Amino acid sequence: MTQQGTLGVAVIGTGRMGADHVRRIDEVISGARVAAVVDIDAERVKSVADRIEGCAAYTDPAAAMAAAEVDAVLVASPGPAHEAALLEAFRHDLPVLCEKPLTPDAASALRVLEAEQRLGHRRVQVGFMRRYDPEFARLKELLDSGELGRPLLLHCRHRNASVPSFFTEPMLVNDSVVHEMDQSRWLLGQEITAVRVLRPRPSAHAPAGIGDPQLVIFETDGGVLVDVEIFANCGFGYQVQAEAVCERGTARIGESHQMLVNRAGGWGGEIAQDFVARFREAYDRQVQAWVDATRRGEVQGPSAWDGYAAAAVCEAGVRAQATGERVTVELAERPALYR
Ligand SMILES: NC(=O)c1ccc[n+]([C@@H]2O[C@H](COP(=O)([O-])OP(=O)(O)OC[C@H]3O[C@@H](n4cnc5c(N)ncnc54)[C@H](O)[C@@H]3O)[C@@H](O)[C@H]2O)c1
Ligand SMILES: O[C@H]1[C@H](O)[C@@H](O)[C@H](O)[C@@H](O)[C@H]1O
């Protein structure tokens, strides 16, 4: 850290999310600067570094993490590259904000948990940014207050306008519904114990090999049922909505977080077209909270345990999707570090 306490961050992966986080650290939030950027694509990383004063470009994450200017790491490479980056960050005892997923499967997530426990202190915050969205935060506050009584059901909708051509059917669960896994565990303070996947007839616009939309149902250890509509190619925009049904009332978010306009012959608002627009404020608040906590020497937010738990539910979800059966979630015992 500089004398003023400014955190030098290395951003690993400068694709869509990484480049947006670089812009966020450089232009939006306070207390940090982009000290290094890393990408296996040498041209891309150089063009990102060239736009920022004092920012070094690397193609090797380990070299960036060894640099004296780097105090913390933001991992935004693809999921399969996360484990290696996290283990390297632990070698230097660096704090990490790791984009979801922590890792792509439960076994590798457990290895990360074990390595963090060997350090003896938490180092990782996982990028489940919905926890920082003002609407989700208000819903959490209301549920925690107990005013509506105990939650019984959680109805969730997750619609993408479209998904890239490399998207596969398991990614409906691993890449998209993983957010509802974390959101449900966090909102309810409960673990997910079983998953089922139901399919309507596929949309005519579903890409080959993907049954789209699907209904993913979670059971929790507190007896709540959660249903998630995942519709990856709905065509009209990006929508994330949730409604909690409790004993004495219901609460719904995500209907219209923007302006509502009356105009000739019509009433309504705009629909965001992607997650970058819909969750802009959540991403800003997430990164600011990470920087602030790191500068205080603390680690907060979704932990490696939360990343592991989501990975375990993903595995059950992908099996439920493939077999049509109810699949129970196998969860390791929660280590003391994460209690
Ligand atoms: N929180 C969210 O809402 C959200 C949204 C989108 C993506 N994500 C997550 O962010 C991460 C990145 O996604 P993206 O959409 O930006 O992907 P992307 O493909 O646009 O970018 C990934 C970048 O990482 C680089 N890269 C690949 N392997 C690398 C390695 N070993 N070391 C360094 N760089 C490497 C690639 O060259 C590319 O530039 C993923 O984990 C993804 O799941 C999160
Ligand atoms: O990778 C993205 C991202 O995680 C978004 O937040 C999610 O809404 C999309 O469905 C997913 O494809």
UniProtKB/TrEMBL annotation:
Domain Gfo/Idh/MocA-like oxidoreductase N-terminal residues, every copy: 8-128
Swiss-Prot/TrEMBL keywords: NAD, Oxidoreductase
A Pfam family the protein falls into: GFO_IDH_MocA
EC number: 1.1.1.18
Catalytic activity: myo-inositol + NAD(+) = scyllo-inosose + NADH + H(+)
Residue ranges annotated for the Gfo/Idh/MocA-like oxidoreductase C-terminal domain, each copy included: 140-329
Biological process annotations from GO: inositol catabolic process
Gene Ontology MF annotations: inositol 2-dehydrogenase (NAD+) activity; nucleotide binding
Keyword check for Heme: no
InterPro entries in alphabetical order: Gfo-Idh-MocA_inositol_DH, Gfo/Idh/MocA-like_OxRdtase_C, Gfo/Idh/MocA-like_OxRdtase_N, MI/DCI_dehydrogenase, NAD(P)-bd_dom_sf
The keyword Oxidoreductase is annotated on this UniProt entry: yes
Family statement drawn from the similarity comment of this UniProt entry: Belongs to the Gfo/Idh/MocA family.
Free-text function comment from the UniProt entry: Involved in the oxidation of myo-inositol (MI) to 2-keto-myo-inositol (2KMI or 2-inosose).
PANTHER family cross-referenced by the UniProt entry: INOSITOL 2-DEHYDROGENASE (PTHR43593:SF1), PTHR43593
Quaternary structure and interacting proteins, as annotated: Homotetramer.
UniProt protein name: Inositol 2-dehydrogenase
Native source species: Streptomyces palmae
Taxonomy of the source species: Bacteria, Bacillati, Actinomycetota, Actinomycetes, Kitasatosporales
